[in-house]
Design a protein that fits this description.
There is one protein chain. Helix 1 runs antiparallel to helix 2 and helix 1 runs parallel beside helix 3. Helix content is 70%, strand content 0%. By secondary structure, it is mainly α. The chain starts with 23 loop residues before the first helix and ends with a helix. The protein has three helices and no strands.
Length: 105
C-alpha cells in the first residue's frame, strides 16, 4: 500500500487579504460577552419567578467572573492588545448600563 503524503504550506503571502483569524483572547471576549448577557436575562426571569432561571443565573455569573479573571490576568501579562482591552471595558459598561436602565423602569 502506498501512503499519500500531503504537504501543507502556509506563507504570509498566501494569507494576504484574508480575514485575520481570531485568537483565543478574542474568543474569551466573545464568551465573556455572551455569559454576561445570558446572566442578565436569566436573572430577570428568575425575579419574575422562573425556577429554571433561578438555577441557571448563578452559573452564568460564575462563568463570566472566571473568564473576566482570565482576561485581567492576560492584560496584566501584556498578552492583550489595546482593542481587546477596550472591548473588556466596553462589555462591562454595556452590562452595567443595561442593568441600570432596567432598575429605572
Amino acid at each position: 500500500m502506498k501512503k499519500n503524503k500531503i504537504a501543507i504550506k502556509a506563507t504570509s503571502e498566501e494569507n494576504k487579504g484574508e480575514i485575520p483569524i481570531k485568537n483565543k483572547w478574542d474568543n474569551y471576549l466573545d464568551d465573556y460577552k455572551n455569559y454576561l448577557e445570558e446572566y442578565r436575562i436569566q436573572y430577570e426571569l428568575s425575579l419574575e419567578g422562573s425556577l429554571i432561571s433561578l438555577s441557571k443565573y448563578p452559573y452564568m455569573k460564575e462563568r463570566a467572573l472566571v473568564i473576566y479573571e482570565r482576561l485581567i490576568k492576560a492584560k496584566n501579562r501584556l498578552l492583550l492588545n489595546k482593542k481587546q482591552i477596550n472591548n473588556i471595558f466596553k462589555i462591562k459598561m454595556k452590562f452595567i448600563e443595561s442593568c441600570h436602565i432596567k432598575k429605572q423602569q
